[in-house]
Amino acid sequence: MMKRISLIPWLFLCIFFAYPQEKPDALRMYIQGNYLEAIKICEGEIASEPVHADSFVVLCWSLVANKQYAVAEQRASDGLALSPYDLRLVEVLGEAKYYQGKNREALELFERYLAGIPDSGSRVGAAYYFMGEIYIRQAKYQHADISFTAAVKKDPLMERWWTRLGYARERAKNYVGAAAAYDKALELNPSQDDAVAGKSRISNILSQAPAL
């Protein structure tokens, strides 16, 4: 009986070493907003396994969230050199370029992402949103309307997107449509300052319009 008991600690040691300790989770760090730790984990994973596309994806998401746009652009390009058909890397490369004002290149990447990804893709709404912002930069307000409309259809709880849809319609002189978009933004968040200001502008314009 004593011999059996003495073996128990050795049994636990064997089990401990047979199953590796839980690896740091970069995606969890990213979701929790600990972007620097996520970047550190991903770079370590890439150093040991360079062809691991998931590590490049989470790395680039974290770099963009940490506003390291030029680095994100480079690392996304590195990842695509290894995994050229990974549409997640295509999309995040578009974001990195967008934030650096590279509008034409970003737009092409978002279009490529949307052409290849199912509608259930996790970044579909964001891709349409960024396209809308690019079209506003280019003063193509009807194009922006179409993109923002697609974005809020995908993610209808994004108050900021509804506000930008209202602005695009306002600039395109679609005042009734703009009012509806601003109203939706304010329904989601009554304190959304840009939506409050936009709705006030539209109300003034519509109040001065001649009666039909």
Describe this protein's structure.
The chain is mainly alpha-helical. It has 13 helices and no strands.
The helix-and-strand class reads: mainly alpha
Remind me, CATH topology of the largest domain?
Serine Threonine Protein Phosphatase 5, Tetratricopeptide repeat
Assign an overall shape. elongated
Number of strands: 0
Helical residue percent? over 70%
Order of helices and strands: HHHHHHHHHHHHH
Termini separation:
99 Å
Rg calc: 24 Å
Corresponding CATH superfamily of the largest domain: Tetratricopeptide repeat domain
Largest sheet: none
Percent range for β-strand residues: under 5%
Q: Do you know the CATH architecture of the largest domain?
A: Alpha Horseshoe
| Low-pLDDT residue intervals, each spanning 5 or more residues | 1-21
CATH class of the largest domain: Mainly Alpha
- Give the count of structural domains: 2
TPR repeats: 125-158, 159-192
Protein name: Tetratricopeptide repeat protein
Keywords: Repeat, TPR repeat
Organism: Treponema parvum
What is the gist of this entry?
It is built from 13 helices and no strands. It has helices at 2-6, 8-18, 26-31, 35-48, 53-65, 69-82, 87-99, 103-116, 124-137, 141-154, 159-171, 175-188, 193-208. Helix 6 runs antiparallel to helix 7 and helix 7 runs antiparallel to helix 8 (103-116).
